[in-house]
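Notes, p. 3: input format for complexes.
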Amino acid sequence: MTSIKKPLKVFHTSDIHLGAYDKKSGRFSEANKIKQEKNFIRLIDIGIASNADVFLIPGDLFDNARVDQETLELFAEQIKRIAIPTIVSPGNHDHVGPDSVFDRIDLTDIAKNLFIFRDVEGSSFIFDDLGLKIWGKAHTEQVPDFRPFSNPPKRDYDGWYICMGHGHYIHPNAVQRHSFHISGQELIDLNCDYVALGHWEQYTIVESGNTTLAAYSGAPESLAHESGIGGKVLIVELIPENEKKISAISISDSTALNQEEIPFLKADPSYVAPSS
Ligand SMILES: [Mn+2]
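Output follows (276 residues plus manganese (II) ion):
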C-alpha cells in the first residue's frame, strides 16, 4: 500500500514498572504506589498536551505479573484517555508466555487504542492513516540470550517505519554480561526512521548510523528514587525531507531538553552480535 509521509509526532516512555509497590510486589508501599500512579497520570497529561500522534512503550510497563487488578485497570483507563494509538512491546519484567501479566485481563478491551506485541520472533502493526508501520518483538520469560533486534524483517513500507525493543545497548563501557544485547550495527540494519528503546532508567540517544535515530526514553520515575536519573519522556518529530527532532520533557515541571542536551552514547565498534 502506498502511503504519503506526513509529519509524525511520537511520544515515548518505558520502564514505568507500574505495580512495583503493590501488595504482592515484595516492597509494598502505599505512599510510593500513590506517587508512582500520580507520576504516570502526569505523564499521560503531558502526552495529551503534546498532541502526539502515537505513544510507544518498549517494555517494563508493569513491574511483575502479580500487580493489583486495579493497577491493570488504571493503566488501560489512562491509555483510553490519551486516545492515540499506543503500542507496547513487552520487556523482561512484563514478558509474554506462561503467567504473563498481559493475560490477566484484556487491556485492549478497555483501551481500544492499545496494541501489544505478542510474538517473540517479531510482528508489526500498520497505521495507514498515520503512514506508519511499527515492528517489534515480545520478551518471553527471562531468557538471557533474547535479542530484541536479531533477524529483523526488510523494510517494506512506504511511510514511516519505527522499531521498538527492550534490551541493553553495547557501548565501550558496557558490562557485557548484561542480557538482551543490542549492537549499534543491529540498529543500523533495522533501516528504520526511529528506534524506541527500553530497559535503561537514564534517557540516552545511542549511536545508530546516519539515517536511524535511536533512543532510550529512560524511566519516568526511577525505582531508585534518589538516583536523580530518569524522570523524562521523549518527544520525537519526524518531518518529511527534514532533520528529525528529539526532545526530553521533564515529567515534574514540563521543561524540555533539546537533542544536544540529551546524553549520547557511541557504539562499541569491536562488538559483534552472536549469530542466531
Ligand atoms: Mn528491563
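The chain is about 15% helix and 25% strand.
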